[in-house]
Amino acid sequence: MLEQKIKDKTAVVAVLGLGHVGYPIASLFAKNGFLTIGYDIDSERLRDIQQGAVISEIISLLPVNEIQRQKKLSEIAENLRTSGEEESLREADVFIVDVPTPLKEKDIPDLSFLENTCRMISRFLKKDSLVIIESTIYPGATEEIVKPLLEESNLRAGDDFFLSFSPERIDPGNKKWSLESIPKIVGGINKESTDLASLLFSQIIQKVIPVSSLKVAEAAKMLENIFRSVNIALVNDLSRLFEKMEIDVWETIAAASSKPFSFMAHYPGPGVGGHCIPKDPFYLLYKARKIGLNVAFIEEAASINKNMPLYVIYLAEKTLKIRNKNLNNSSFAVLGVTYKNDVLDIRRTPAEAVITELTQTSKNVMAFDPLTTQTFGAKTGSLEETIRDKDCIILLVNHSYFREKNIEEKINNLAPNCCFIDTKNFIIPSKLKKSVLYKCLGKP
Ligand SMILES: NC(=O)c1ccc[n+]([C@@H]2O[C@H](COP(=O)([O-])OP(=O)(O)OC[C@H]3O[C@@H](n4cnc5c(N)ncnc54)[C@H](O)[C@@H]3O)[C@@H](O)[C@H]2O)c1
Questions:
Q1: Which of 235, 293, 325, 406 has minimal Cβ neighbours within 10 Å of its Cβ?
Q2: Domain CATH code at residue 133
Q3: Average pLDDT per block of 10 residues along the chain, 444 residues long
Q4: Which residue range forms the structural domain that includes residue 109?
């Protein structure tokens, strides 16, 4: 019985897709004593994991004490078998799916990775296997897309094997909430599936929240990420309005945050990035359109966030004008390229749109990020080389590296006459020389 195997940790867990989500979850199962098969089709990714090159992605799972860390690392290594061979899945009792669910042209969901994976699982499904989808999908997709593909095995979901959806809520770089402490929502095609998947996750995660259906679990993930998308869009919109009204949006948010209930602070910025917030709203929008409903609010929010890079360019243009310069005859430095501070992930980063726009007008655009050398066609160099003598410096990401390097001092010494566009309210303006023309998004 799978239930007993889960209880005594003899169930073999296969995690399909060892990316930002799958590698940590596979490591967590391995750390907790489950024999875990980590399967991925990307041989480079497998090599990086095997060589320990991406250990930082699972560091939150490891106790800070160095001796304990080594012990946990060896437990993970002992129990986690990574492979690109389909045959490695044959002994699996549980299949957890963490493959990408991106968008294709016209912001339509691309479910091809999920579909391929489900077809492959169907070849290895046994009676009483448990399949859990963690990849983000629209409500209804597990029943409509996943179930029929798995049933190509000639086994019936709910009767012969268990099927569950459990959204992943990992927040890369979050030092307070780790994979183990973030509550895990679980929905199933029937009660037995929900119970079994809940039992499995309760072996590795502190709190499990069973819900009544697959659709509720799928919809909860949509709600969480659309909540962020619309709230970020709201402050982005307000930042433009307040700027014109000579109100500091950052101070306003801090003041509003003193309300002990019914307010949650969100902050403006150059746009949203990563593999969730920019694309998940489009999953729900796709489904809404299919059933003939217009949810304009969600669409408008996504579009406000998408347009923020252009607003950053507008701010740069406006500030340069004060110095009698324009986008064509100015040199630029872009600081920060990843979508988020202190996290190496450049997927859908707003920096791409900002740099692309700048390089179309100016011949002298450099970009620097302490975590990546990908600069979307801009030249790169050291931090010092990047900012030296530039007319305009645009800070897009508030990496702690910039604080450690005393960025204000570097600007004073290397580009004392620049225009500085701060999209994160990061710079301490009083530390800047008077000759630097400082402009912060959302401030008069
Ligand atoms: N990144 C996040 O912070 C986050 C948070 C919550 C949920 N999610 C969701 O989790 C899912 C995975 O996201 P991610 O960020 O880990 O993506 P990722 O791109 O980092 O990793 C996906 C991995 O799946 C592999 N893959 C692709 N096709 C495969 C196949 N057929 N079989 C096996 N492996 C395959 C890829 O090689 C890659 O290594 C997505 O649906 C995403 O929306 C992501």
A1: 293
A2: 3.40.50.720
A3: 96 97 96 97 97 89 84 91 97 98 96 98 97 98 98 98 97 88 98 98 98 98 98 98 97 98 98 95 96 93 97 98 96 98 95 97 96 96 98 98 98 98 97 98 96
A4: 2-212
